[in-house]
Write a structure and sequence with these properties.
Shape: globular
Number of helices: 11
Number of strands: 0
Distance between the termini: 58 Å
Radius of gyration: 21 Å
Order of helices and strands: HHHHHHHHHHH
Length: 244
């Protein structure tokens, strides 16, 4: 019990910088939601139930475009599919006797930042540690979205458009560092950008909805990259000493 309490407060301490970042990023998300015709309350509720920047931004954009529920569901599913792998990795750090309800609650808020903090913990991962981070991360994310949506309704259109650029800046900040380290990632990013452009100008393709376009490009490009550029696992060489 005492150990769980200590881990909870450790999670709050480690999650404080994450919460500050979420507050800033979700503010821009809120302004984008208003631009797509979503009310501040709806935007805040979406952030309470869906703690993911790329997924929410895509969903808000698709809602604004008036696409079908199926397209929205498939698009957000594909964009957030990486969380399946993160959840599997985190499950290996949990004690085998961890109750299902703890696993269920932890799975609700597996984000890139929470995964990074959790996976770096030494030894077994205590659920209370994740609860500590979530206690700050979820309110900060939803509060930032609400604040951005409310301010987005009063700010001049020019300022609102400038604020929306910040979200794209966040996406650039996410893809540039790995692209510098790995030429394959840089190539995939370049192909994705060119393909997205072609889907907006070529006859026939430009008539597809934005949701279908995201689904096609994500699946085709990621599958092609996995086949053409498989990840090579370094195998440790076994040194066998033989005595004559």
């Amino acid at each position: 019990m005492n150990s769980g309490k200590n881990m909870f407060f450790k999670g709050i301490k480690d999650g404080f910088p994450v919460a500050l970042g979420y507050l800033a990023v979700s503010f821009t998300l809120g302004t984008a939601a208003v631009k797509c015709g979503i009310t501040p309350l709806q935007a805040a509720l979406a952030s309470v139930l869906n703690n993911t920047s790329a997924g929410e931004f895509a969903a808000f954009t698709l809602i604004g475009a008036g696409v079908s529920y199926l397209e929205i569901a498939l698009t957000t599913l594909i964009l957030n599919m990486r969380y399946f792998l993160m959840s599997c990795a985190l499950s290996q750090k949990l004690s085998p006797d961890t109750p299902f309800f703890h696993r269920f609650i932890m799975a609700f808020d597996v984000t890139d930042e929470l995964f990074g903090l959790s996976v770096m913990q030494e030894g077994r991962l205590h659920p209370a540690y994740n609860y500590g981070i979530m206690a700050l991360a979820i309110p900060a994310w939803s509060a930032g979205t609400l604040l951005g949506a409310v301010m987005g309704g009063i700010m001049p259109s020019g300022v609102l458009s400038a604020m929306n650029v910040a979200l794209y800046g966040m996406f650039i900040a996410v893809i540039v560092p790995p692209a510098k380290k790995d030429k394959t990632i840089a190539l995939v990013i370049a192909v994705s950008m060119v393909s997205s452009l072609l889907f907006t100008v070529l006859p026939g393709l430009k008539n597809l909805s934005s949701g279908i376009t995201v689904i096609i490009l994500t699946v085709v490009i990621s599958l092609a990259a996995a086949i053409l550029f498989p990840v090579e696992h370094k195998k440790e060489k076994e040194v066998v000493s033989c005595e004559a």
